[in-house]
Structures are given as structure tokens and as C-alpha cells.
Amino acid sequence: MKGFPKSVITKLALIACLTLLFVTVPVFAGAMQTGGERWITEWEVKWADSPDLAAVPGSVTASEGWSPNQSGMALPKRPGTSSTLWIRTKLPALNWDIPSMLIPKIYGQNIAIFIGTTPIYESNRDYIYDNNKVLTPLQRNDSDKILYIGVQSAKDRIGLRHGIELGNYPELLDNYVKRDLIDIILGCAFVFIALVMLICSVFLKKEQNASWISLSLVIASAGVLVITYSPFLYTFYKDYGKLYTRLWDVALFVLLPSLTYFIERIFGSGYRSVIQKLLYFQIGYSAFCLLFMLANIVLNDKLFGIHYFLSVRVLGIVMIVQAVLLVSNSIIHAVKGNRSAEILTVGFAVFGLTVIGEMVWFYLKDGNYDLFLWKWGAAVFIISLMLILGRNYTINHEQIVKYSRELEMFNNELQRSEKMAIISELAASVAHEVRNPLQVTRGFLQVLTKKYRNQDKIYMTMALEELDRAAGIITDFLTFAKPQFERISVLNVKEELGHVEGVIVPLANLQGAQIDMRIPDHLQVKGNSSKFKQAFINMVKNSIEALSGDGQINVWAYEMDERVVIHIQDNGEGMSKEELARLGEPYFSNKTKGTGLGLMVTFRIVEAMGGSLEFKSEKGVGTEAVVSFPSAAV
Prior knowledge:
Layout: H1 6-31, E1 39-40, E2 42-48, H2 58-61, E3 67-70, E4 84-90, E5 99-107, E6 110-115, E7 118-123, E8 131-137, E9 146-152, E10 159-160, E11 164-168, H3 169-178, H4 181-200, H5 206-229, H6 231-236, H7 241-267, H8 274-298, H9 304-335, H10 339-364, H11 374-449, H12 454-481, E12 489-492, H13 493-511, E13 513-518, E14 524-527, H14 529-545, E15 551-560, E16 563-570, H15 577-581, H16 597-608, E17 612-618, E18 622-630
Parallel strand pairs: 13-15
Antiparallel strand pairs: 1-11, 2-3, 2-4, 4-9, 5-8, 5-10, 5-11, 6-7, 6-9, 12-14, 15-16, 16-18, 17-18
């Protein structure tokens, strides 16, 4: 696998858009349903200096000082040092079986709700988290009474967001529970995936573990961020609010260096090791912030102001620098054709666009907006990281398979070379020792042949023929053992193959075969003319013998990439894959009386001329030999 196709990146972007659309449409559809008789969309607000929410003070119930407000308007701006905002509105007729009130979004740390001067709800937090939703039952006799809501917050935003929904308790309870449940599901899915990946890391090799575990930490910390950002835990398990805020900080301190480390493992250290330097800084800064957080916990939040500055203000700048460096690095690699970088760029772009779009909308709404799309952008970004890791593992696996095949091929070549070296030495020694006695024996037999007549002469002639055949085998052995050429010259391929054709045509005619040669005039190679002809006579002769009855042998040549390529193709019986793999082995032949030495000699001659020989064949279709030599053309 050379890389991820662009279609996969397009699909990733499409999935991201559909995911965001799937999440956005229901949210805005729900926002459009904030009108009607069930909703209180208009109310009045009044600032008070008294921090006490235990009772409605007389100054609040007074008619003066109230300002109108309604759903869709900006949140009230804090005047001076006032920390308490009072909200009042008149309840309509409550005609439900179990009338109840749901406030889906109200900002403040401490909240108290009264009907008249009677308290019906109270919530106090000793940690800074101001996103609340409230569900409380009402009575039918509360109809047309004045509802007072007191809110306190250390943050600038304070007050109602959408309004107050009225209805039957079971229906509102269903909305109350499900509203932020998707955050918990998404966050827990991330944590579960990370946990499974960490368990699987036990079975990975050391060199694979680094990127695998770093991605697991990225996914786990992202899941914790999604969970601890959601109002769900603060609504149903608000007693552990401090734990949630600290888990948020820890997850952020783990996420940033883990992400940088993962990117470094995939793409390297970057220009002048800038990614590596950023990683070292993040590890040190995260460790420092964790230690400072522990000190703040021990001192009972006395260092909270400094901790907030370090973990929010400074860390925000570090995140911006990290985003710029990582995106720049991925874009550089993407421009160079790195498909992993392209995937990362798409994932980061989806995440960045969701965050930027939400921030723009946040400021356009003067802060009257809660960020929620960022977690789905983060989901797309994490998916892109998982795709990158999976792609890298696939590439590594294919490289291992490729190296294994190459190693097997090299081993086979080594074994073949060793085998051929042994055979060469044996052939040379045997040929030298046997040739002279054979020549002497042949001479005596020729003398004796002249003295015999009739049947005895036939026997002597047969003996001479067998001696000649033995001499031919010995000559092949010597050619195989010592393929070096005494005379090397520039050969014209067309002329040499023309001589081959003249020698081999009579045999072809006897077999009923037709030879068609198409050789250009200008092709030239370096070698020994006699050995060149011997090699091609062997190959064309094999093609003729492979034909059954009438057949066709095509020989053509051309020059490509400074090499002369010659093809010899027949439509004979062909060979199986097993037979094709054994071509050139000693004593392997498809012919009844064949020794396999002819093709061995052919391989050695071609190899000695700096060429290569390859056979292609299919049973019942035919065989094609492809010979390639370095071109000697000036």
C-alpha cells in the first residue's frame, strides 16, 4: 500500500460534515421550539449587593429597579461589584397533573428559587462551574404567583439563557435526564476505546508501543475532557464537582504532550527539531502544573488564582502555539505527498473549523452561547489519528512482507549460486579428465570401422554417434563451467539472429513450424558471436520441440532504457508454474532424452554478457522467453 487514496480523505471530510450536521440539526431544531404556551420567554432582572440567597430581601420584592429581559437577548452585564442577580416573572396557569418547571440553562454558582417568599429550590457550589439546569415540581395553586430566582457567580456571565419550560413532571424529567447524556456516551466511548487499546498494547512490540500508547492517552484524555465539560455530572453528581474540575486539568495536561509525541513518532521531529523541543517543554510544563495543582489542593485552594492563570491563561497560549506548529508541520508533509499528513490536516481542519466557528458565534452572541460542537470536531480529529496509526501499521506490515520475500529470493539466489559453483567445478574437472580418453577411443573406433562390414559396421557407427553425443555434453559442461569469452566484439543483433534462423529453419520445416523474425537494423550488443548464436539456437530449438504439429514462433526485438530486449514466443504446449520455476536447474528437462544442460548453458551465456533471461509460460497456450542485454549502440 503506497498511501491512502484521496477518495478516503474525501470520505473522511464527508463523514465529518455529516456528523456535524447530525449533531447540529437536532440542537437547533430544539432551540426553535422555545416558543409557545409551555415556555416563559420574558422576565425581569435586578442586581443586588446582598450575597444572601437564603431569603428574598425586601429590596428585591420592591417594584422599582427591575429591567426587562427575554430569551434571545444578551445576558445582563454586571454593574460594578454586584455579585447577585435576581430574576422575577409571573407564573401562568398550571393545569398539568403534576406541574413542574425546567430551567434548561442558567449561569451561576449558587442558585435559590422562591415562589413569593417561599423557597422551593437551592443549590450551592464551592467550585467554579456556572453551567446549571434545574428541575423542580410546582403546585397547581402556584398559578399566577410571582417566581423569584436568585443567582450568584464569580464569573461575568450570569442569568437565564433560553427561558423557563413548564409542563407535566414526567415529560420534563425525560428531557432533564437526556439533554446532556450524549456527552457522557461520547466521552465514555473514547475512554473505553483507549482502555481496549492499552490492553492490546501488551501484545505489541516495543517499537510499536510508543505511538500506540501515546494515541491511547490522547483518546482517553479527550474522553475525560468531554465528560467533565458536560453539565450532566454537575447536575446529578454535583457533590464531586471539585474532582471533575481537577480531572479536566489533568486530562488537559496529559493530552497536549501525548498528542505532540504521537505526531513526532509519525512525522519526525520537524524543522530543526522544533516538534521535539515543543514536546520537552510541554512535558516539563505539564509536570510543573500538576505539582502546583497538588500544592493548591493541600493548601485548600489558597493558590487557586495562580493555578487558574497557569492552567488556563498560559496553557491556552501553549495550545495555540502547539496547534500552529503541528498544523504547519502536517501541511508541509502533505504538500510533499505524505498521505498520513493529508489525513491529519483534514482531521485538524474539521476540528479547527468547528472551534473557530463556535468561538465566532460565541462572540457574536456576547457570550450567550455554550460551546458544544468542539467535541464532535475532536471526535473527527481522533478518528483521523486512528486512521494514521492504522495506515502506518499496514505500511510497516507490507514492508515486512516485502523484505521477507526479498530475503527468500536472495536465499534462493545464494543457494543457486552455490549449487552452480559446485557444479561448475565438478563439470570442469570431469570434462577435462574424460574428454581426452573419449577422443582416443573415437580414433580407434574410426580405424576399426573401416575393417568391418554389414551389421558390425552399423554397431561401430552407432558407437561413434554416442561418443559424439557424449563429447557434445562435455562441451556443454565446459561452456557452463567457464562461460568467459576469449573474443568479444560488437554484434549486430539482426545479423546474428539471421545466422541462427538459417541454421534452425531446416529443423523448423521438419516440425511444420513457421519462424517470423522482426529485428531492427540498428540494435547492437557486446559479446562473443559463437556463444550468442549457441544461446539463441538453444532457445529457438526448445520452442520448435515444444510445438505439436504446425505452430508459430515469433522473434522480435527493440531497444528500451539503453537495453536491447529480444522476445522469442511460441504457441506450443507451454509449462506449469512448477515447471517454469525449475527452468535452468541441473538435469531438469521436459524432453524424454533431455539433460537440461542446454538451458543451463544458455542462462550462463546470457549472464556472462551482462544480460537477463526470463520465461513466461501458460499450459496449453505457449511460452515466451524475454532476453535483455546492455545496448552497445554509440
